[in-house]
Amino acid sequence: MTESKRTEEQPLSERGSNRSQRPSSQAFRAFVADGWGPRPDALPERSPAAGHAAARRAALGRRFPGERLVIPAGQLVTRNNDNDYRFRPHSAFAHLTGLGTDQEPDAVLVLHPLDAAGAGPAGAAEGGAGAEGAAAGSDDAAPTHEAVLYFRPRAGRDTEEFYADSRYGELWVGVRPSLEEISAQTGLRAEHIDTLGDALAKDVGAGQVQVRVVPQSDAAVEGRVATVREQSGLTQGAAEADAALAEALSELRLRKDPFEIAEVRAAVAATAKGFEDIVRNLPRAVEHPRGERVIEGVFGARAREEGNGLGYDTIAAAGNHGNTLHWIGNDGAVRPGELVLIDAGVEVDSLYTADVTRTLPVDGVFTDAQRRVYEVVLEAADASFARAGRPGAKFRDLHAAAMEVIATRLAEWGMLPGSAEESLAPEGQYHRRWMVHGTSHHLGLDVHDCAQARREMYLDADLEPGMIFTIEPGLYFREDDLKVPEELRGIAVRIEDDILVREDGSVENLSAALPRTPEEIEVWMARLRA
């Protein structure tokens, strides 16, 4: 056979290996499998998140008694050609397993309904590993589900995967845990991912068990669930059932438990260090033609050193770029005399993130015009914070308090077509031209956490202990906005802090260590750059 003939017959999917000269002889396979030291005998310690995750699973199970709940971690995502993005598990999977960082691609958590005798799909005894109910802190007398983690454990050293698989092989990506190790870490019963198909189909054909899967989490797993449903004639209402599961998973995260609160505190503390790094490096940013990218890089380094990485793409918006709400190109210059709006958050290893914004004068001192805008935004933020601390406050009140200040001050500046009261009316809203976003959102595993929660559980809900949310009013005066006084054009200010509702109903500014007033910011910047 000629070389060209062989190339023509080689499938396109296999041609990526043409660059490699990977050994394949039986002699090599025997040699590479031999001569390794023993694996460590000690199992990993139980994760500090394990008990909290069990209580969360129990709460979810009580929402869906008798149903099989499927929560995938998700798959590795191709960045380009044969390079993957760094893996981050689906937030619901992380919340219910306690796994973070890059654990575990392709894994699937399944909550199997227990029968009346408390036995699960494998006859698990009531209260055993993975059984969710009273043992997990529930008020109910008996568990409702057995939680099983299906995942891909490490392959043996005598397998081709060990040395040849660039996605999962030990010599390529490191040592994956065994079934016993992942079980010890999470407190869950662990099974090989190859058994998932049979587990999903168990008792479904007899019409005994309904199955729900988190939508848009893992196309392959969703496809398996769809097949099970089709074979069992259970396709009607499937989309609505899955949406209800996603909704419940979001609402489960509205109130944070003590572990989650501690993790957000850690994320905020690391974020504060990142902002200090930025201030120290502002002179270098000024000297660089893409100074915004210098700011982004400085913060990103801190995020990787102290956590898993960024909670979201950093906004490092200098000058008029600050008037683009989600400016993440970060390719502009940083000029003395201008402001730089920095919206950034560190995501810690548990995947909880901070979300903080500070607007800083590049050379350390606010101009009169910049201070004038900044003080209005600060007043709006303080008004929202004060409203949050009132008994009976609702989430929607946070935005209303900030908007009352914004509308009042813009009216005083003559920028509205009528009074502040007219603008605040639903049929007015003229002040929103200069702040089109909301004032607050929940914060946790996702920067915009609990996004699938019902309106009555989110926007219209009372503030309750354990809730963590942002307060982030802003004013954005674009250079080309002729309705803005000329001396204010090109100025953008946002102040964002992360807020916790304590058990007594009072509120705490978790990011208060970062200066907020103009005077505090100027002193802080001078100290860091001395």
Polypeptide structure, described:
It is a single chain. Helices cover 35% and strands 14% of the residues. It contains 16 helices and 18 strands. The longest helix has 30 residues, at 258-287. Mean pLDDT is 92; it is low at 122-128 and 134-138.
Major sheet details: 6 strands, mixed
* β-strand amount: 5-15%
Uncertain runs: 122-128, 134-138
Give the number of DSSP strands.
18
Radius of gyration: 27 Å
The N- and C-terminal alpha carbons lie at a distance of: 73 Å
Structural class: alpha+beta
The oligomerization state is single chain
- Average pLDDT value? 92
3D shape: globular
The helicity comes to 25-40%
Note the total helix count: 16
List keywords for this structure.
six-stranded mixed sheet, 35% helix, three-stranded antiparallel sheet, 530 residues, 16 helices, alpha+beta
Would you kindly provide a brief summary of this structure?
By secondary structure, the protein is α+β, with helices and mostly antiparallel strands. It has helices spanning 3-9, 26-32, 50-63, 91-97, 160-164, 170-173, 179-186, 196-201, 219-232, 238-251, 258-287, 291-306, 368-388, 395-412, 420-424, 518-528, and strands at 67-72, 78-80, 83-84, 108-113, 131-132, 145-151, 189-192, 210-213, 309-310, 315-318, 339-344, 346-347, 356-361, 468-471, 474-476, 492-494, 497-501, 507-509.
